[in-house]
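$ run holo --ligand "zinc ion" --emit tokens
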Amino acid sequence: MHPRWLSHKDLKDFIDPLQGAGLSALEFELDDRLDSWNESLLLIKAAVELGLELSFHAPFREPHSLVGFAGNLRGSLEQKFHPLLEIAETWARRTEKMSTLVVHAAVSQPPADPHTLVADTIAFLHWVIETFPHLRLALENNHPSIMGEIKVGVQRSEVLDIANNFPSASLGICWDMGHDYLRHQQDEPPPEWYSRITHVHLHDVDHNDNDHYPLVLGNVPYQPWLQKLEQVGMKGIVVLELKGERLKDWSKDQIREALVGSIKTIAREVIK
Ligand SMILES: [Zn+2]
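-- output --
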């Protein structure tokens, strides 16, 4: 959910057909630099009032970076992250339900040492676990590097290596199936991968590798992946993760049809 899409006053009308199709949760990005951030806070409240479960995406745009968290930037980074993560923690406490917090592993412009970025990520995750007891962490596989970025947590093995520093009760993995598809490697995930997944980001990708479309293109092989997650008993949320700019030339009817269709497709695979 993004505050640019609609006002909290319009949430009920927007959500009604989606709830009918199987929608039960909304995910919000925590970033006070988003335009209409205050509207985001009102949307979170409205979502709770409509009986929706919440999940949250940790801030990941500058100045919210994990780079330096294992070093001498830790104090100032904690100060930047704390007020935003506290919003998620407060809602989780108030609704008496643990909320998922999705986190990307560290990303840096060069020069950067990937080992240091892994250490920064692990230090950050430890801090969140200790500081925000009502948040259930999900480490997301990152979008492959673009324009020379140095990224960790793109390959499944890298995500598992970081996750294995934590007990699964404290930290699971958010499988971003679109990002995974963008690696353009057709390797089947190992059983260890399936057993660590607690949250899913799902979106389609076009032929130019633009991601975060509704499920209308048929490129991301999500059906066997979702079926396998259902078989292994994954209980987490599957989030249809969209970028509004991909839909900017679509009519309202087209958008509603694509969203309802995508949610029905997900519900068919995961709600048994
Ligand atoms: Zn994602």
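-- notes --
The longest strand covers residues 99-104.
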